[in-house]
């Protein structure tokens, strides 16, 4: 046993020495493995990170929330937009019967957004910001992450006070820090508002498309004095299921109440859409699965090419070391020791390629995270997967050369040139 370990240790040192001596040959052989591992782990890391961010947003937005809107979310190249273009927009007045009649509804709120607004403070200004007007229970349904300040109080909502909550891009652009923004009076579309809260930087939502970083959030009653939501905005109603109520139950009740409000006849189609976050996240999961499959297909071709390169190196290595193999077998080295020696060298080659591929993925994650688009994380599971795939490719690529080496006749091997 000890002799076998010594032989393997010496073989390992010889393998490392061969890699150092034949740098160009080693590099060209590792290139295929590096590209293959990079493709697999980069795609898996990207899809895993996207899925983790989407699921986190679903939890934040609420998997038990239904959005009453004019347009459905199930778009696509064959989307029949002509069926929905003449639908009426949701109205703030529809919120009252929803609260009174939908028994499975816990909380409900009204909101609308309007783009391309100018925000000013003294000599500074920002163009193209989003005005986001919400009613009182919005913050209880969609938890906003405050850096400082608070949400609107009851009277501020009811009376339409001219107060606002600023997204990260806005308070950074106008004030530099959130503390300096608190209590200041700014102008939104020419109307003065007092800042009572600032939000943490979040980035654009991957699910509902709302970018709070670029929003000025105001009470709905005040917001409608700036923008007529029926003509220049995209209003919607949010309804959160009550504790113990299912999403299906909520949608059934909500559909009945909305049809009653709109006075639709039994044979008439709904003139509203009931959208839910879980449907969108389910579609995204299918997309992630297809992207993963594409990454594996690309990686398989690269790994096959890399595997042939490793096998070629191992055939050359066996040819170069035929004399040494003969001497080892003459002094008692068994076939399995010779086999393990070359398999070990092949695995080292492939694992080096795998480590280079993982290093490239890590550098990619650093570059993506610096853009603050979303959190891109190389997980331990993906690192282990990359090294495992590298090892398996090394064993497969090196098995035939290693097997031929183990079967050499010691006398013939020693005599070979």
From TrEMBL:
It is found in: Cell membrane. It comes from the Bacteria. Residues 297-410 form the ABC3 transporter permease C-terminal domain. GO terms for cellular component: plasma membrane. The chain crosses the membrane at residues 27-46, 293-316, 337-363, 383-405. Residues 26-255 form the MacB-like periplasmic core domain. InterPro entries: ABC3_permease_C (IPR003838), MacB_PCD (IPR025857), Macrolide_Exporter_MacB (IPR050250). Keywords: Cell membrane, Membrane, Transmembrane, Transmembrane helix. One of its GO terms (molecular function) is transmembrane transporter activity. It is a multi-pass membrane protein. PANTHER family: ABC TRANSPORTER PERMEASE YTRF (PTHR30572:SF4), MEMBRANE COMPONENT OF TRANSPORTER-RELATED (PTHR30572). Belongs to the ABC-4 integral membrane protein family. This is FtsX-like permease family protein. It comes from Chitinophaga pinensis. The lineage of its organism: Bacteria, Pseudomonadati, Bacteroidota, Chitinophagia, Chitinophagales.
């Amino acid at each position: 046993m000890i002799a076998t370990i010594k032989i393997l240790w010496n073989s390992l040192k010889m393998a490392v020495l061969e890699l150092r001596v034949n740098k160009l040959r080693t590099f060209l052989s590792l290139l295929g493995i590096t590209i293959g591992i990079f493709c697999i782990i980069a795609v898996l890391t990207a899809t895993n990170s996207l899925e983790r961010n989407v699921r986190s947003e679903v939890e934040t937005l609420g998997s038990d929330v239904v959005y009453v809107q004019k347009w459905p979310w199930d778009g696509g190249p064959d989307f029949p937009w002509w069926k929905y273009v003449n639908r009426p927009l949701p109205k703030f007045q529809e919120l009252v019967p929803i609260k009174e009649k939908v028994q499975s509804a816990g909380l409900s709120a009204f909101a609308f957004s309007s783009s391309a607004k100018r925000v000013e403070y003294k000599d500074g200004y920002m163009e193209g910001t989003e005005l986001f007007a919400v009613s009182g229970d919005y913050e209880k349904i969609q938890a906003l992450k405050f850096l400082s300040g608070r949400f609107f109080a009851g009277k501020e909502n009811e009376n339409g006070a001219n107060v606002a909550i600023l997204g990260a891009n806005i308070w950074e652009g106008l004030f530099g820090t959130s503390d300096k923004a608190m209590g200041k009076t700014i102008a939104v579309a020419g109307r003065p508002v007092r800042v009572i809260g600032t939000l943490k930087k979040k980035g654009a939502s991957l699910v509902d498309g709302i970018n709070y970083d670029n929003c000025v959030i105001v009470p709905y009653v005040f917001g409608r004095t700036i923008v007529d939501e029926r003509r220049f905005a995209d209003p919607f109603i949010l309804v959160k299921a009550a504790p113990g109520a299912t999403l299906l139950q909520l949608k059934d009740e909500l559909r009945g109440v909305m049809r009653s409000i709109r006075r639709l006849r039994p044979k008439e189609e709904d003139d509203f859409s009931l959208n839910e976050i879980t449907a969108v996240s389910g579609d995204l999961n299918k997309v992630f699965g297809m992207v993963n499959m594409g990454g594996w297909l690309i990686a398989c071709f690269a790994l096959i090419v890399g595997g042939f390169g490793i096998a070629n190196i191992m055939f050359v290595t066996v040819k170069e070391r035929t004399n040494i193999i003969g001497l080892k077998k003459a002094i008692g080295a068994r076939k399995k020791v010779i086999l393990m020696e070359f398999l070990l060298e092949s695995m080292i080659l492939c694992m080096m390629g795998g480590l280079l591929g993982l290093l490239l993925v890590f550098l990619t994650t650093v570059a993506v995270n610096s853009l603050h688009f979303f959190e891109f994380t190389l997980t331990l599971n993906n690192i282990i997967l990359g090294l495992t795939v590298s090892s398996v490719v090394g064993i497969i690529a090196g098995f035939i050369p290693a097997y031929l080496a183990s079967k050499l006749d010691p006398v013939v091997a020693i005599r070979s040139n």
